[in-house]
Design goal:
heterotrimer; A alpha+beta (335); B alpha+beta (154); C alpha+beta (763); A: 335 residues; alpha+beta; Uridine Diphospho-n-acetylenolpyruvylglucosamine Reductase, domain 2; Uridine Diphospho-n-acetylenolpyruvylglucosamine Reductase, domain 3; Enolase-like, domain 1; 3 domains; 5-stranded antiparallel beta sheet; C: 763 residues; Aldehyde Oxidoreductase, domain 4; Aldehyde Oxidoreductase, domain 3; 7-stranded mixed beta sheet; globular
């Protein structure tokens, strides 16, 4: 592993200053929040920005607010650790707290931010390596080349998205605010993800993610995120599933929009299982109903040999984890 | 290109001129010569470089030194009250056989310190989770956990 | 009165305080004035001819002080500690043989400059076909790594003892299975580091992270054309070795060479990525094993063929392939034994010793198969082990002489965990539990090659403290404390009176170092003898002062007294002062040396007794398997180990627990993920190379079973390696017990579990 490459460091104090630095340096700049992923990729020479713009001194970017009517608002630079210790989150969004706890180690969570976890770069055996390691092969799509070492002959990149907070936030209907010199835009969290292994999120070079908002929890709803990994701490997911259900009188609620199933680490973005709501709404929360969603989910993903867990195993696990997640979410809704 | 920073380490303020790309680990080891902070992997996976930043356990290999300006940093050298008076955690690690090769020891002791500061009576399971970011190949963790339990009741 | 005052006590380690405070200096922590930083350039190709190396651009970079390639060396080849026929140049000569092979090195004023210079070295390669699979490597026409090794066979063993065919004919159950094991990293947290300085007298002084500084001491002069005593090896603290820091490596020679070139001290520290992707590892194996057992459970014969994928160079491979065969005769009575072992060259990372050295692989196969046979014969897995367990006084077919042996007691105590079953209650439908056993015997101080002499000196300071000087290395296992406790006991001192001297080839006596679980047994005896020698020197003075014969004096609790007349006594310190200061004064310096009476076994035919004694043990694992995900959780383990006598029970437990951690990793988690076409691991980080973390480890009950060995110091034998041998099969057998299916390749991943269950459901 190399030592860090050189760069110029900027620590703006406000969102406005951040936006103007971004428009000044454009592609030559990278934002750094916690830096727990960025510093590794810089040591690996996957990223060699001339300018680093730090979000850690931007005022207000680490705030967490809860309002019963408008819901939860979290600054992008809130650390995962403070998120797990935040009273409104522990109280109203325990599944988010649990998902945040599943990221990295204690030390990583003390520094890594929510915004950084959402904007986590996609990963691949052939990408997340040092420049020394990578010189044994021609560069791949994601390192500026024209080949894929995972899927021979492929014209696209299959690198995997594996942030653990995104699926649960998507299941809860989160939105994100992107700021720039020209103003701000709010998009659904799902829209943040492009599904493109090369450029996994829709944040433009002159923009930065400033806030994540989540609607207030609906009565009778429950959410859960299950994460499969070889070691029960620290590891990235082999795969994960987030689910949201609504319950009414011991059965699934009748409105399809009360349901969401999001698959993680099986493609270049978190994937929402289409039609999950229709398959579940109004049914008895038993294996048969879950099985249908599980099988549709399984058919909808095509994991590749680019991360821990073989594609075959990850695919086998999709229905298993979907059922676990739905069961847990149903239990949370009923409690 | 060097930036002037003042770094508070173990209660002492150091005025330093550092390149912005230097990690906290590099500055601690190479500038301040505090070599108790170990370089195990340099990628945040082993925990041997753990230090306390405002009381929280962090990986000094994944932090830029320039970012730690106003923070209070504690390394293993700053834990004991004096040369003849070890911190209760250090004492417990010594007495319970929790130290073998010793390379993970500074990091795991500091992680345990932060853990006990925020949760003075952790269960065995909470200790396991709390130190899971600190790898150790020698001990199988059994005596480390025992030592942390002993220190919490000390 | 208790028999001992220091030995057998749970005392803190002598080095614990400085390790707890961060004061302990490891090689990478050291600096010298004017020191340069070195970095290695490694091959990106698995197999290639080096046509040209142009170092001009690198040399011209500001801050670069030297660039070296093979041209700057004497062409010395290291490795092969057995026959001395090394095949590994420390900078590649005509060829590179795996991704990571060292090609050139740079010394510069700082690390950043050295790194930059590496990018400026231009190497022209002619790519050669490569081979990664050992079976393919043995085929006719496979790419040849070394001209001298036809079919890439680095070495082979052919062991024939008794008549295996007759044994199989007499058996009621004969099973043939293929087991395979994966490459495993040593995974010490401290990467290799070396600091060397060459002075104007022509001497190299070297500090390195060496588990056996002696090998570097012997090899460095040959590599650099120096006299032996012009190389001084000083040992700093070592951040774990597990067999992976025994040998000298490229950085050791290169740091010295760069210092000779530049006239400045040079430090080279590998990154963990370099260690994991280009360093040594445990031999992956393909093992075909056939075992015949009578219906009463008696083992009749074992026949085994092992192909070990050794990687690009021989390293300690001659030993590995011998050990893999010879330990088929441990820890059970095996009347007929046949073994064909091959250590094969491939374009992979090089394999060497690792905790248990070759034995964990073989015992995984043999112990797992034994459980399958026990099931076929409807015999309890514990009973079949008890039935065949070696006993004191046994000689094995290949010539191992078993002296002290507590295997039966270990097995019986391990068997107590059967009550765990009663605690399970009703399990959810997707959870299955099981318990499994494994047993082992292990060497304690084998004579590997050449000499196995350990020397020790005990210097008595004027204030009554002592220094123990040995060449034995504490790489973290606690041998410094163990040796100190031995010396303190002999002289009747407290452990706090022992000052430690770390190995320094200029000062400390001869000792080959830490391997083969030899330090407690071999170096421990040397220290015992040296301390006793110092005691005798003091007793002469004391006898005069107390008016008694020297043999009548007892040294205990820092007092010296006459055995039958304890009123006649004096403090130890007073005696020391009298000895040092009266008359002409004396230098009290005890001297001891020890080597067990052993011949080097015949590594080809397997005949010979390789160790003066053997440790034994058994362990039990309890697992829970999630049949939805295939995930295995080891919930409890119990470890029983016959270490002769526990010099320090707390440290023995620490060794047993650490071994379980290594074994659990090999059983369930650790593996090198192979990148396509290069043999290079895709997971050279502790994020993706998954050694167990604290949450992956079960609660471990560990206990030393004492058999008081007739030769070991105070009756002690090894405790550092044996346990790792049976952790893997204890876990695989527990899984077998839970599910009824045996996974025959390591690691036992969730996916393999689900596939095995699926296959069973189909049948």
């Amino acid at each position: 592993m190399r030592r860090m490459p050189r760069f110029e460091y900027h620590a703006p104090a406000s969102a406005g200053e951040t936006a103007s630095l971004l428009s000044e340096y454009g592609d030559a700049a990278r934002l750094i929040a916690g830096g727990t992923d960025l510093l590794i990729s810089m040591k690996q020479r996957l990223s060699t920005p001339e300018h680093l713009i730090s979000l850690s001194s931007v005022t207000g970017l680490d705030a967490v607010d809860y309002d019963e009517k408008t819901g939860l608002r979290m600054g992008a630079a809130v650390t995962l650790a403070s998120l797990t210790q935040s009273p409104p989150i522990k109280d109203k969004y325990p599944a988010l707290e649990a998902a945040a706890r599943k990221v990295g180690s204690v030390q990583v969570r003390n520094i890594a931010t929510l915004g950084g976890n959402l904007c986590l770069d996609t990963r691949c055996w052939y990408y997340n390596q040092s420049d020394y390691w990578r010189q044994s092969r021609p560069p791949c799509h994601k390192t500026g080349g024209e080949v894929c070492h995972v899927v021979e002959g492929s014209k696209r990149c299959f690198a995997v998205y594996s942030g653990d907070t995104a699926p649960i936030l998507m299941a809860m209907g989160a939105e994100v605010k992107l700021m720039s010199g020209g103003g701000e835009r709010v998009i659904s969290l799902g829209e943040l993800f492009t599904g493109d292994g090369l450029r996994p999120n829709a944040v433009e070079p002159h923009e930065f993610l400033s806030e994540i908002s989540v609607p207030p929890p609906a009565a009778g709803s429950g959410v859960a995120y299950v994460k499969l990994r070889l070691r029960e701490e620290v590891d990235f997911p082999i795969m994960g599933v987030a689910a949201r259900v609504t319950m009414s009188d011991g059965a699934f609620g009748s409105a399809p929009q009360g349901f969401k199933v999001v698959l993680n680490a099986v493609g270049s973005a978190p994937v929402e299982v289409e039609g999950a709501g229709e398959m579940l709404a109004g049914k008895a929360p038993e294996q048969a109903a879950l099985e249908e969603v599980a099988q549709v989910a399984r058919a909808s993903v095509h994991p590749q040999a680019n991360t821990a867990g073989t594609p075959e195993y990850r695919r086998m696990m999709v229905p298993v984890l979907v059922k676990h997640a739905l069961t847990e979410a149903a239990a949370a809704a009923s409690s | 290109m060097k930036q002037l920073i003042s770094l508070n380490v173990n209660g002492e303020t150091h005025e330093l001129a550092v390149f912005p790309w230097r990690t906290l680990q590099e500055v601690i080891r190479e500038e301040l010569k505090l070599t108790g902070t170990k370089k195990g992997c340099d990628t945040g996976d082993c925990g041997a470089c753990t230090v306390l930043l405002d009381g929280r356990a962090v990986l000094s290999c994944l932090l830029l030194a320039v970012r730690c300006q106003d923070a209070e940093i504690v390394t293993i050298e700053g834990l004991a009250e004096s040369k003849d008076r070890l911190h209760p955690l250090q004492e417990a690690f010594v007495n319970h056989g929790a130290i073998q090769c010793g390379f993970c020891t500074p990091g795991v002791i500091l992680t345990a310190k932060a853990l006990l500061d925020s949760n003075p009576n952790p269960t065995k399971e909470e200790i396991r989770v709390g130190i899971s970011g600190n790898l150790c190949r020698c001990t199988g963790y059994a005596k480390i956990i025992e030592a942390i339990q002993a220190a919490q009741s000390a | 009165m208790e028999e001992f005052t220091v030995v057998g006590k749970r005392l803190p380690r002598v080095d614990a305080v400085v390790k707890a405070t961060g004061e302990a200096m490891y090689a990478a922590d050291m600096e010298l004035p004017g020191m340069l930083h070195g970095k290695m350039l490694r091959s990106p190709h698995p197999h290639a001819r080096i046509l040209n190396i142009d170092t001009g651009r690198a040399e011209r970079l500001q801050g670069v002080k030297a660039v070296v390639t093979a041209k700057d060396t004497l062409g010395y080849r290291y490795g092969d500690l057995i026959l001395g026929k090394g095949d590994e140049p420390f900078l590649a000569t005509e060829k590179v043989r795996f991704v990571g092979d060292e090609v050139a090195a740079v010394a510069a004023v700082d690390e950043d400059t050295a790194e930059e210079a590496l990018q400026l070295i231009d190497v022209e390669y002619e790519l050669l076909p490569a081979v990664f699979d050992p079976l393919e490597a043995m085929e006719e026409g496979a790419p040849l790594l070394h001209e001298h090794a036809a079919n890439n066979i680095a070495c082979k063993s052919t062991m024939r003892f008794g008549d295996v065919e007759a044994g199989f004919r007499r058996s009621d159950c004969v099973r043939e299975d293929r087991f395979e094991t994966q490459p495993v990293c040593h995974a010490f947290l401290e990467p290799h580091a070396a600091l060397a300085t060459y002075d104007s007298t022509g001497k190299i002084t070297f500090w390195g992270s060496k588990q056996s500084p002696y090998f570097t001491y012997r090899n460095m002069p040959r590599a650099l054309g120096l006299e032996l005593s012009k190389v001084r090896i000083v040992q700093p603290f070592i951040g774990g070795g597990f067999g992976g820091k025994n040998e000298m490596f490229s950085l050791d020679f290169t740091a010295a060479l760069l210092s000779m070139k530049t006239g400045k001290p040079v430090k080279i520290v590998y990154g963990q990525e370099e260690v994991l992707s280009a360093g040594r590892q445990r031999n992956p194996t393909i093992m075909d094993i056939k075992t015949g057992v009578g219906k009463d459970g008696t083992i009749m014969a074992i026949k085994c063929r092992i192909v070990a994928n050794g990687g690009a160079y021989i390293s300690i491979g001659r030993m590995t392939r011998y050990l893999m065969g010879s330990v088929l005769a441990l820890p059970y009575r095996v009347p007929n034994l046949e073994y064909d072992g091959y250590r094969v060259y491939t374009n992979n990372q090089v394999c060497c010793a690792q905790r248990g050295h070759g034995v964990p692989q073989v015992r995984y196969a043999a112990e797992s198969q034994l459980d399958m046979i026990a099931r076929e014969l409807d015999i309890d897995p514990l009973d079949i082990r008890l039935k065949n367990a070696l006993q004191p006084g046994d000689n094995t077919v290949n010539g191992f002489r078993i002296t002290s042996c507590g295997l039966t007691e270990c097995l019986q105590k391990a068997g107590e965990i059967k009550k765990w079953r009663e605690e399970w209650g009703e399990l959810p439908p997707n959870k299955k539990r099981g318990i499994g056993f494994g047993a082992y015997g292990f060497v304690s101080g084998p004579r590997v090659a050449g000499h196995n002499t350990a020397g020790a000196m005990v210097k008595v300071h004027e204030d009554g403290a002592i220094s123990v000087l040995t060449g034995a290395t504490d790489s973290g296992q606690g041998s410094d404390s163990c040796l100190s406790q031995i010396a303190a006991e002999v002289l009747g001192l407290g452990l706090d009176k022992v000052r430690l001297v770390m190995p320094d080839s200029e000062v400390t006596p001869l000792d080959p170092g830490t391997f083969g679980s030899r330090v407690t047994f071999v170096s421990g005896n040397a220290v015992w003898i040296a301390a006793d020698d110092a005691r005798k020197q003091l007793a002469e003075v004391g006898a005069e002062l107390l008016g008694a014969h020297p043999e009548e004096l007892v040294f205990r609790n820092e007092q010296v007294f006459v055995r039958d007349d304890p009123e006649k006594n004096m403090p130890f310190t007073k005696l020391v002062k009298s000895a040092c200061y009266s008359g002409t004064g004396r230098t009290i310096m005890g001297r001891g040396y020890f080597a067990p009476e052993l011949e080097v076994p015949n590594y080809e035919t397997g005949e010979g007794n390789m160790s003066a004694t053997y440790s034994f043990g058994a362990q039990a694992a309890e697992v829970e398997v999630d049949t939805d995900t295939g995930k295995i959780t080891v919930t409890r383990m119990k470890v029983l180990h016959d270490c002769g006598r526990a010099i320090n029970p707390m440290h023995v437990e620490g060794q047993l627990e650490g071994s379980v951690c290594g074994g659990l990793g090999q059983a369930l988690l650790e593996d090198k993920i192979k990148g396509k076409d290069t043999g290079q691991a895709s997971n050279p980080s502790f994020m993706e190379y998954k050694l167990p973390s604290a949450v992956d480890m079960p609660d471990i009950e560990s206990e030393a079973v004492e058999t008081i060995d007739p030769v070991g110091p105070f009756g002690a034998k090894e405790s550092g390696e044996g346990v790792q041998v049976s952790t893997v099969p204890a876990i695989t057998n527990a899984v077998y017990d839970a599910l009824g299916v045996m996974v025959k390749t390591l690691p036992v991943t969730p996916e393999k579990i689900l596939k095995a269950l699926e296959k069973e459901n189909e049948e």
